[in-house]
Amino acid sequence: MNTSIRKLYPVLRLRTGQVPRRLKQHLLFIGLLMVWCFAPLWLHKIDETAGNIDQSIWLLVILSLISFMLITGLCWWLLQKFWLAAGLPSFRTMVSQFNTLSLWQQLGFYWASFALLLLVASVCLSAIC
Description:
The chain is mainly alpha-helical. It has 2 domains: 20-46 and 53-87; 94-128. It has 5 helices and no strands. It is elongated and about 60 Å long. The chain crosses the membrane at residues 26-44, 56-79, 108-128.
Protein backbone atom coordinates (compact mmCIF):
# COMPACT_ATOMS: atom_id res chain seq x y z
CA MET A 1 0.00 0.00 0.00
CA ASN A 2 1.26 3.44 -0.83
CA THR A 3 2.50 5.56 2.11
CA SER A 4 0.23 8.47 1.23
CA ILE A 5 -2.78 6.14 1.27
CA ARG A 6 -1.65 4.76 4.64
CA LYS A 7 -1.60 8.27 6.04
CA LEU A 8 -5.11 8.91 4.73
CA TYR A 9 -6.48 5.56 5.95
CA PRO A 10 -7.66 6.86 9.36
CA VAL A 11 -9.38 9.79 7.64
CA LEU A 12 -11.06 7.49 5.14
CA ARG A 13 -12.13 5.18 7.93
CA LEU A 14 -13.72 8.09 9.79
CA ARG A 15 -15.69 9.12 6.73
CA THR A 16 -17.20 5.66 6.40
CA GLY A 17 -18.71 5.93 9.88
CA GLN A 18 -16.34 3.59 11.70
CA VAL A 19 -15.15 5.84 14.49
CA PRO A 20 -12.45 4.21 16.60
CA ARG A 21 -13.27 3.63 20.25
CA ARG A 22 -10.37 5.74 21.43
CA LEU A 23 -11.57 8.70 19.38
CA LYS A 24 -15.05 8.34 20.88
CA GLN A 25 -13.55 8.59 24.35
CA HIS A 26 -11.59 11.69 23.39
CA LEU A 27 -14.68 13.26 21.85
CA LEU A 28 -16.66 12.53 25.01
CA PHE A 29 -13.93 14.11 27.13
CA ILE A 30 -13.78 17.20 24.90
CA GLY A 31 -17.57 17.41 24.94
CA LEU A 32 -17.63 17.32 28.73
CA LEU A 33 -14.99 20.04 28.86
CA MET A 34 -17.05 22.19 26.48
CA VAL A 35 -20.18 21.66 28.58
CA TRP A 36 -18.21 22.53 31.72
CA CYS A 37 -16.97 25.76 30.11
CA PHE A 38 -20.23 26.93 28.57
CA ALA A 39 -22.84 25.53 30.99
CA PRO A 40 -23.00 28.68 33.18
CA LEU A 41 -23.74 30.81 30.13
CA TRP A 42 -26.41 28.41 28.88
CA LEU A 43 -28.02 28.11 32.29
CA HIS A 44 -28.07 31.88 32.73
CA LYS A 45 -29.67 32.34 29.29
CA ILE A 46 -32.34 29.75 30.08
CA ASP A 47 -33.10 31.10 33.55
CA GLU A 48 -31.89 34.59 34.36
CA THR A 49 -32.78 34.15 38.02
CA ALA A 50 -30.35 31.23 38.43
CA GLY A 51 -27.62 32.11 40.87
CA ASN A 52 -24.03 31.03 40.97
CA ILE A 53 -24.79 28.22 43.39
CA ASP A 54 -27.32 26.67 41.01
CA GLN A 55 -24.76 26.72 38.25
CA SER A 56 -21.89 25.36 40.30
CA ILE A 57 -23.70 22.21 41.48
CA TRP A 58 -24.01 20.86 37.94
CA LEU A 59 -20.50 22.00 37.12
CA LEU A 60 -19.13 20.00 40.04
CA VAL A 61 -20.90 16.87 38.81
CA ILE A 62 -19.44 17.38 35.32
CA LEU A 63 -16.01 18.06 36.84
CA SER A 64 -16.22 14.79 38.78
CA LEU A 65 -17.07 12.93 35.54
CA ILE A 66 -14.07 14.52 33.86
CA SER A 67 -11.78 13.59 36.74
CA PHE A 68 -13.15 10.02 36.72
CA MET A 69 -12.37 9.71 33.02
CA LEU A 70 -8.88 11.10 33.55
CA ILE A 71 -8.16 8.77 36.48
CA THR A 72 -9.46 5.74 34.58
CA GLY A 73 -7.40 6.60 31.50
CA LEU A 74 -4.28 7.26 33.56
CA CYS A 75 -4.64 3.96 35.43
CA TRP A 76 -5.10 2.06 32.15
CA TRP A 77 -2.01 3.70 30.67
CA LEU A 78 0.05 2.95 33.78
CA LEU A 79 -1.18 -0.65 33.80
CA GLN A 80 -0.07 -1.12 30.19
CA LYS A 81 3.37 0.40 30.87
CA PHE A 82 3.96 -1.67 34.01
CA TRP A 83 2.59 -4.77 32.32
CA LEU A 84 5.11 -4.50 29.49
CA ALA A 85 7.97 -3.59 31.84
CA ALA A 86 7.29 -6.61 34.07
CA GLY A 87 7.39 -8.98 31.10
CA LEU A 88 3.99 -10.47 31.82
CA PRO A 89 2.00 -12.25 29.10
CA SER A 90 0.04 -10.17 26.62
CA PHE A 91 -3.55 -9.15 27.19
CA ARG A 92 -4.70 -11.56 24.49
CA THR A 93 -3.21 -14.44 26.43
CA MET A 94 -4.87 -13.22 29.59
CA VAL A 95 -8.24 -12.92 27.83
CA SER A 96 -7.93 -16.41 26.42
CA GLN A 97 -7.15 -17.67 29.94
CA PHE A 98 -10.13 -15.69 31.26
CA ASN A 99 -12.41 -17.48 28.83
CA THR A 100 -11.36 -20.82 30.34
CA LEU A 101 -12.69 -19.80 33.77
CA SER A 102 -16.04 -21.12 34.90
CA LEU A 103 -19.11 -18.94 34.58
CA TRP A 104 -19.31 -18.03 38.27
CA GLN A 105 -15.64 -16.99 38.30
CA GLN A 106 -16.14 -14.76 35.25
CA LEU A 107 -19.26 -13.26 36.82
CA GLY A 108 -17.41 -12.64 40.08
CA PHE A 109 -14.60 -10.88 38.22
CA TYR A 110 -17.09 -8.71 36.29
CA TRP A 111 -18.90 -7.83 39.52
CA ALA A 112 -15.64 -6.95 41.31
CA SER A 113 -14.53 -4.78 38.38
CA PHE A 114 -17.88 -2.99 38.31
CA ALA A 115 -17.80 -2.46 42.07
CA LEU A 116 -14.30 -0.99 41.92
CA LEU A 117 -15.23 1.36 39.08
CA LEU A 118 -18.34 2.44 40.95
CA LEU A 119 -16.25 3.04 44.07
CA VAL A 120 -13.76 5.18 42.15
CA ALA A 121 -16.57 7.16 40.51
CA SER A 122 -18.23 7.84 43.86
CA VAL A 123 -14.92 8.85 45.42
CA CYS A 124 -14.31 11.28 42.52
CA LEU A 125 -17.79 12.74 43.02
CA SER A 126 -17.36 13.09 46.77
CA ALA A 127 -13.85 14.56 46.43
CA ILE A 128 -15.03 17.24 44.01
CA CYS A 129 -18.31 18.04 45.75
